[in-house]
């Protein structure tokens, strides 16, 4: 029996296609129309739209503005990621942004036969969705017509999304008195995502691959994103914007590599993705357990031990195995835990004692705990994860674990298997 690679990918992507349906994504990207992958990004965005994803595109225009100002012999200064924007610059900026917006709309309107856009029928809407005000004078610098966001027309954007339109937003804002202000596109994307309570904010950025190649974590808290001090001005700027968005209520912000033409779809439709994620669940801190956590762990797991869901563990047993435990902490209280026992010879690990306090089982905390332990296992070179369960098999099956036989367990685990408890083994490949 043969398995075509496309069919395998399609089957693995199906759960993501289902979960993304009717969700709202804000995608921010550089508006460099000459970049070889920009057209592919726009075509992939149209594909997302045709999968019933509500799509808001926010484009930058810094390169185009630089080119227009240079041709007009107008000097420009950027301070703290904001351009000091004089009145003389405004016509050039309007020309640069307007021309770029039209070219993006044209790329999204393609419907050529045998192209990715064939029969796409994407309707693009743009307009005065952003009310802005001047930045003013900061540290003695008058930013003139550089602006900051005052209000997002959330209702107007939503109406267009409900009609099936793709909303395209440029880095310009308008005042009630008719002025036009030059805005930072990262701030625009974060503010729009916040106003819409978007399900995802995605930055298509330089520097993501070098960041990952340095061996840095691909899942960050807002605090970690803000603290990034590595190479890449644009990556630092977008990680900061991602942190702000998360702190404003966006659950997940993704950064994908601009120079990888497949990055967007790989991030959204594969289990491991290929980018960096900043998660907004920053009130919960996941960390490795210490001896000082024993009391909190006992309080958490005792009720489930009494119900027969978990194997009983004494205080002494926990002290011996504490290095294998991870705890989910909120306001200095342990609200969740899980253990990871490696079997390096088989490139396997056992996931055990996955618990979330009953008061905190909303917001998919157990899923986040599982995701974090899977990531930890992958970083340790583990390729498969197994569990033994008596009462929670269905929950694990829904998350990719499949039933196996006792003989499929690592040798050491088979030898220690408790036949009286009769736990059922399940396996997931990472």
What keyword list fits this structure?
15 helices; alpha/beta; 430 residues; 8-stranded mixed β-sheet; Aminopeptidase; 2 domains
Explain what this protein looks like in three dimensions:
This protein is α/β, with parallel strands linked by helices and 430 residues long. It folds into two domains: 5-279, Acetylglutamate kinase-like (Carbamate kinase, 3-Layer(aba) Sandwich); 284-429, Gcn5-related N-acetyltransferase (GNAT) (Aminopeptidase), CATH 3.40.630.30. The chain is 37% helix and 25% strand. The protein contains 15 helices and 23 strands. The chain has helices spanning 5-20, 38-50, 62-71, 90-108, 154-162, 185-196, 208-213, 222-227, 233-247, 263-269, 294-306, 315-321, 365-379, 393-397, 411-415, and strands at residues 24-29, 54-59, 78-79, 82-83, 124-125, 130-134, 137-138, 141-142, 147-152, 166-169, 172-174, 180-182, 200-205, 219-220, 252-257, 276-279, 284-288, 325-330, 333-343, 348-356, 384-389, 402-403, 424-429. The strands form six sheets. It has an eight-stranded mixed beta sheet, with helices on both faces. A seven-stranded mixed beta sheet has the order 17-18-19-20-21-23-22. It has a two-stranded antiparallel sheet with strand order 3-4. The radius of gyration is 25 Å and the shape is elongated. It starts with a helix and ends with a strand.
């Amino acid at each position: 029996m043969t398995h075509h690679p496309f069919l395998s990918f399609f089957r693995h992507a199906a759960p993501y296609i289902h979960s993304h349906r009717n969700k709202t994504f804000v995608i921010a990207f550089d508006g460099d129309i000459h970049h070889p992958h920009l057209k592919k990004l726009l075509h992939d965005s149209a594909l997302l739209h045709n999968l019933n994803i509500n799509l808001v595109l926010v484009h930058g225009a810094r390169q185009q503005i630089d080119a227009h100002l240079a041709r007009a012999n107008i000097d420009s200064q950027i301070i703290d990621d904001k351009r000091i924007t004089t009145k003389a610059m405004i016509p050039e900026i309007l020309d640069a942004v307007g021309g770029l917006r039209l070219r993006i709309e044209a790329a999204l309107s393609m419907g050529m036969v045998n192209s990715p856009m064939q029969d796409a029928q994407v309707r693009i809407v743009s307009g005065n969705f952003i009310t802005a005000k001047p930045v003013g004078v900061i540290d003695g610098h008058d930013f003139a017509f550089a602006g900051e966001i005052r209000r997002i027309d959330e209702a107007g954007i939503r109406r267009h999304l409900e009609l099936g339109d793709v909303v395209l937003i440029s880095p310009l804002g308008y005042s009630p008195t008719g002025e036009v202000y030059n805005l930072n596109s990262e701030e625009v994307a974060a503010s729009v995502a916040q106003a819409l309570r978007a399900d995802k904010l995605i930055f298509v950025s330089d520097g993501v691959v070098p960041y990952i190649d340095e061996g840095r974590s691909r899942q960050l808290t807002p605090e970690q994103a803000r603290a990034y001090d590595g190479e890449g001005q644009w990556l630092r700027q977008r990680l900061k914007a991602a942190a702000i968005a998360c702190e404003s209520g966006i659950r997940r912000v993704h950064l994908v590599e601009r120079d990888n033409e497949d990055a967007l779809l790989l991030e959204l439709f594969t289990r491991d993705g290929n980018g960096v994620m900043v998660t907004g669940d920053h009130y919960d801190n996941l960390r490795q357990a210490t001896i000082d956590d024993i009391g909190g762990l006992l309080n958490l797991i005792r009720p489930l031990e009494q119900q027969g869901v978990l194997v009983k563990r004494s205080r002494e047993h926990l002290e011996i195995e504490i290095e294998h435990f991870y705890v989910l902490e909120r306001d200095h209280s342990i609200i969740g835990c899980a253990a990871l026992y490696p079997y390096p010879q088989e490139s396997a690990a056992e996931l055990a004692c996955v618990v979330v306090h009953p008061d905190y089982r909303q917001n998919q905390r157990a899923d986040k705990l599982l995701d974090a332990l899977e990531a930890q296992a992958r970083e340790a070179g583990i390729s498969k994860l197994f569990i033994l369960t008596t009462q929670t098999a269905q929950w694990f099956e829904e998350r990719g674990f499949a039933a196996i036989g006792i003989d499929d367990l690592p040798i050491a685990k088979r030898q220690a298997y408790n036949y009286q408890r009769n736990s059922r083994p399940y396996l997931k490949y990472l």
